[in-house]
């Protein structure tokens, strides 16, 4: 048997073993086994344990401030409409930064509020997913990083826990409004969103168009979608994906009701799910294993009941019409060319609605493109800030390692 054939057999066996563990966990296990088996088929060319077969030196430079996810800023809390406490952190520009010097030169002591760049993270992640961009932009421009409800350091959504209301993307848009009101109550803002965070930005614009019109001076949509997510097959065969799509909402709901049992099973099948996380997060085979493990920790820290609560919202997401509110400001639309979660075609559709936007399709990149190719993403964000009149061009932004040899950029 060829090496690839052996790996396929091993992947299938691992999936079957994991699925058996899930079956023993109860009703939802049988369907989760289908998902595990399908994902294992996609992972088969690679071994399922993160780091196995990867012996090359790490190519990403860890910033001098500390380990991944360790950067902290001035903490704050915003209160959502349902009373949920939303945690955010602010990084202020250094007094001698180019932005601060220009403001003093133009306005003296009567300078208006500075531009604030607000970063919104994706599903099952947290504000620390912007680690490399945060390290690079720190001290250059005022930035806000926040954790979406029920994620990271934010409180579990009270509407969900107390009133059993479903999560909606519109609700997340209102959460973002609460964070802006608390962390950047005045002055221009640039909105940056990855995946679910990009959808959150669209929902904000849909419900508060006057905010975009009056205060937003730039926006970046990273690995996200304006709708039609129900058509994504996640790299699985169409027939298999149709089966998964039929059972997944019920599976997640059942799993969410058995949190303790599910979390134990997660530990028992850690290698399998590490492989699945890697497949759906990255495309490059040369991703630093430490970065892959960091992504695992972010995703695995999201409780299964939160995963279950949020998943149905994506099927209802449709914010194509809201994109028009960004037509008059500089916009960056960026995606990995091998993103299996929000395929690059979805970013192209966003760019079609915003013909003046810069569209960047990153080669050899998956869904977590800002971790996989951090320097490239940071450079594009710095270019956006320069176009928005916020900061100096990308050359002045601290560089961090990149695995991207080139990029396809077009308007």
TrEMBL record:
<dbReference type="InterPro" id="IPR050471">
    <property type="entry name" value="AB_hydrolase"/>
</dbReference>
<dbReference type="InterPro" id="IPR029058">
    <property type="entry name" value="AB_hydrolase_fold"/>
</dbReference>
<protein>
    <submittedName>
        <fullName>Pimeloyl-ACP methyl ester carboxylesterase</fullName>
    </submittedName>
</protein>
<keyword id="KW-1133">Transmembrane helix</keyword>
<feature type="domain" description="AB hydrolase-1">
    <location>
        <begin position="116"/>
        <end position="374"/>
    </location>
</feature>
<keyword id="KW-0812">Transmembrane</keyword>
<feature type="transmembrane region" description="Helical">
    <location>
        <begin position="27"/>
        <end position="50"/>
    </location>
</feature>
<dbReference type="Pfam" id="PF00561">
    <property type="entry name" value="Abhydrolase_1"/>
</dbReference>
<dbReference type="GO" id="GO:0003824">
    <property type="term" value="F:catalytic activity"/>
</dbReference>
<keyword id="KW-0472">Membrane</keyword>
<dbReference type="InterPro" id="IPR000073">
    <property type="entry name" value="AB_hydrolase_1"/>
</dbReference>
């Amino acid at each position: 048997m060829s090496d690839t054939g052996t790996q396929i057999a091993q992947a299938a066996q691992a999936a079957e073993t994991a699925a058996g563990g899930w079956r023993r966990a109860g009703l939802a296990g049988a369907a989760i086994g289908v998902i595990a088996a399908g994902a294992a088929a996609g992972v088969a060319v690679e071994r399922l344990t993160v780091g196995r077969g990867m012996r090359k030196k790490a190519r990403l430079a860890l910033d001098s401030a500390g380990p991944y996810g360790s950067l902290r800023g001035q903490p704050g809390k915003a209160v959502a409409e349902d009373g949920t406490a939303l945690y955010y952190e602010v990084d202020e520009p250094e007094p001698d930064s180019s932005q601060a010097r220009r403001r003093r030169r133009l306005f003296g002591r009567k300078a208006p509020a500075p531009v604030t760049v607000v970063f919104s993270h994706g599903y099952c992640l947290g504000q620390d997913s912007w680690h490399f961009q945060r390290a690079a932009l720190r001290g250059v421009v005022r930035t806000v990083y926040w954790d979406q409800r029920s994620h990271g350091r934010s409180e579990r959504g009270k509407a969900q826990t107390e009133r059993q209301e479903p999560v909606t993307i519109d609700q997340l848009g209102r959460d973002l409004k609460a964070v802006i009101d608390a962390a950047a109550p005045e002055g221009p803002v640039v909105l940056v969103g990855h995946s679910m965070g990009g959808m959150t930005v669209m929902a904000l614009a849909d419900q508060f168009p006057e905010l975009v019109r009056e205060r937003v001076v730039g926006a970046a949509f990273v690995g996200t979608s304006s709708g039609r997510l129900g058509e994504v097959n996640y790299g699985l065969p169409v027939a298999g994906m149709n089966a998964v799509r039929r059972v997944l909402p019920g599976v997640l709901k059942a799993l969410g009701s058995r949190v303790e049992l599910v979390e134990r099973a997660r530990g028992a099948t850690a290698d399998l799910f590490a492989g699945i996380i890697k497949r759906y997060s990255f495309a490059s085979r040369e991703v630093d294993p430490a970065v892959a493990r960091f992504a695992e920790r972010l995703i695995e820290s999201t409780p299964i009941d939160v995963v279950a609560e949020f998943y149905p919202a994506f099927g209802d997401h449709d914010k194509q019409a809201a994109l028009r509110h960004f037509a008059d400001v500089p916009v960056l639309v960026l995606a990995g060319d091998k993103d299996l979660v929000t395929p690059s075609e979805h970013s192209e559709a966003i760019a079609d609605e915003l013909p003046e936007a810069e569209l960047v399709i990153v080669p050899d990149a998956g869904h977590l493109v800002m971790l996989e190719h951090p320097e490239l993403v940071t450079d594009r964000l710095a270019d956006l800030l320069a176009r928005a009149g916020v900061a100096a061009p990308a050359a002045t932004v601290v560089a961090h390692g990149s695995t991207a040899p080139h990029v396809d950029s077009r308007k």
